[in-house]
Design a protein that fits this description.
The structure is a homodimer. Helices cover about 40% and strands about 15% of the residues of chain A. Chain A is α/β, with parallel strands linked by helices and about 350 residues long. Chain A binds a DNA duplex (16 and 16 nucleotides) through helix 2 and helix 4.
DNA sequence: GTGAAAGCGCTAACAT
DNA sequence: ATGTTAGCGCTTTCAC
């Protein structure tokens, strides 16, 4: 009581991490009270609270959540597994998710699968071992083991981006098949007939595949077929878009429309076409997919389909906050006609509402 | 007392998570043996190992790392805090980091600060509460509390991207001040004299600020000054680059060089200039910063400085794997002259090595 | 090669 | 409003 100077003078260095007990001793209250103060739970007198907070701050105490999580059987983490960060689409979804989780006490933690199902499985296993409160995973295609793990996780699982397939639990996304079909309809309505597709043939990119399938269906429904297609492997870049375009047009000079698997290669293709003085959109129409911001800065506005990325992230966040399961949420994916699809030759309702929405982005 | 009927018959579902004990019972060995098998430690007979693995797989057991980490006082996580995912620079650093960590057993976990020091502090606190084995944080500027936390973390801390300032522990990056100076030198050597700067004035973007400072120093060293500058707030986009350029050139039509704070707005500016038929690089020179892939797809190759993003990530990974502390690693940042800086008017050594390196990207 | 005991740092549940 | 007790599920350490 009298002279109790902590004799720990000149502690050399290998500083053990501080524990609740240290704060408890410094503040002169039980560990339990410290715990309560630090979590803002239960009734604690103002005097005690202030004493505890002061002690904690002075010592530089950082709670050990590992112990806390083990004791409480609760973890404030949401595990998120996406295929890639290089593709701007995913950071935007993550932004929506983070926004949506704000204030919930839940923290997103990200893992990257590189479009590899095996890696995805490994990353999921790793994340599940931390017993998160929820899972977000891109797409509906996973290894059997991954599906089993997810189904058995005992917490809400949200599959995002795509709704074409069977969900494990909840799913929030757009229909890529429908997006492809609708773009085909738009293109045919504008009078284009010799149509080419440019995209990746990465085996793991199921959404691009479904878009192409839907596109071909849509063409068929309008009595048309895909004239030709050109594929690449690896990441998407403006440069890739240019090269693909050059290759495809060299082979098929009389194509009158190019449908790109995404906006980035579409933008590259657009730049290439404009440089060569091709008459876009009259002689040659173009369209991409995603509705990226990038398109706003190009010389001409590329037609695209908005994939509602941010909204998907937010919706997933809402499901997780509310601990909902088994929800299916298909977001509308709107065709943004931009300036690279000519007006329909016949005077049919040109869809002024679409243009209205365009300005909204 | 007698009739106290919580007859927990027919447990409906709230499936308790599996534990080592479950596997232990299924395999007929002690929990300890199961633990050894699952971690691949110690000597276990093949027969036992196989039995344990089979049991674990059949049950779908996923180890609880929370308990494991608490017991072993070791966590295989590397906490990484970056300002933004929207800025392509950071995903590339993360990619380098992930690559570098591969096979080490260490797992990066990402947090985003949105260029807000307060948020950075909060995210760091959150991550430190999981007791990671290492920290990676962008930049050298942090709140006092954050610096204290990092210094007290007791694990290696690597500050990345920037080396201009005082490090807490290790630092890996480029000198943005030097990058600015060198670009100024390059521009002056090419004979440009009426020079404008375009960039963000976001208070949290210290690297952009240092680049500008170095740039002004470099101009001064060459007897020149900055003629004018134009700033924006918010994210970088092609569109922003266009608008900034239009504004600045409207105010200062006789500028002969525009130095952009980054490649994205630089690319927007370049497109704008080319559309208006400005004579780039003779009448007007342009340069950005970062060395993004994006530049490869533009009609003309924008001059820039390579910021060695991926290499920074890999180097940070190496330091963390080796548990090194107190290392300072300044990566060389190379000016890539591209096609938007004209050749020097006087025949002075045009730096063929630079061009050689250019092809290397 | 395998097992038993102790405890990591915290919180739930129940005192008081 | 504050304290006490008993674990959370695993790994460390030491026995056998």
């Amino acid at each position: 009581m009298t002279a109790d100077p902590p004799p720990d003078t000149a502690d050399p260095a290998p500083r053990r991490n501080l524990t609740l007990r240290d704060v408890s001793e410094a503040a002169g209250v039980s560990e339990m009270t410290v715990s309560r103060v630090l979590r803002g739970r239960g009734d604690v007198s103002d005097a005690t609270r202030l004493r505890v907070l002061a002690a904690a701050r002075t010592l530089g105490y950082v709670p050990n959540r590992i112990a806390g999580a083990l004791a409480s059987q609760r973890v404030n983490l949401i595990a998120v597994v996406i295929p890639s960060l290089a593709n701007m689409v995913f950071p935007e979804v993550l932004a929506g998710l983070s926004e949506g989780l704000e204030g919930s006490g839940l923290q997103p933690v990200f893992g990257v699968s590189d479009y590899d199902p095996g890696r995805e499985e490994a990353v999921l296993y790793e994340m599940l071992s931390w017993r998160p409160s929820g899972l977000v995973v891109a797409g509906l295609e996973h290894t059997a083991a991954a599906r089993t793990m997810l189904a058995a996780a005992g917490v809400p699982v949200v599959e995002i981006m795509d709704v074409d397939g069977e969900a494990i639990d909840s799913v929030v996304g757009v229909s890529h098949r429908r997006a492809g079909r609708e773009m085909a309809g738009t293109i045919l309505a504008a009078g284009y007939r010799r149509i080419g597709f440019l995209g990746s043939n990465m085996p793991g990119d199921h959404r691009a595949r479904k878009r192409l399938e839907g596109f071909v269906e849509g063409l068929a429904a309008g009595g048309a077929t895909l004239t030709d297609a050109e594929f690449y492997t690896g990441g998407s870049s403006l440069k890739t878009g240019r090269e693909l375009t050059a290759t495809l047009l060299a082979r098929q000079p009389d194509l009158d429309f190019l449908y790109y698997a995404n906006d980035v290669i579409g933008a590259g293709g657009l730049l290439w076409c404009l440089e060569r003085g091709l008459d876009v959109p009259r002689r040659l129409g173009l369209a991409g997919f995603n509705g990226l911001d990038l398109l706003e800065g190009l010389p001409m506005r590329l037609a695209t389909t908005d994939a509602a990325r941010r909204e998907i992230g937010r919706a997933a966040a809402t499901l997780l906050r509310e601990r909902r399961s088994g929800v299916r949420l298909e977001m509308p994916n709107r065709v943004l006609p931009g300036q690279t699809i000519r007006q329909a030759p016949r005077p049919q309702a040109p869809g002024p509402s679409s243009f209205g929405k365009l300005s909204g982005r």
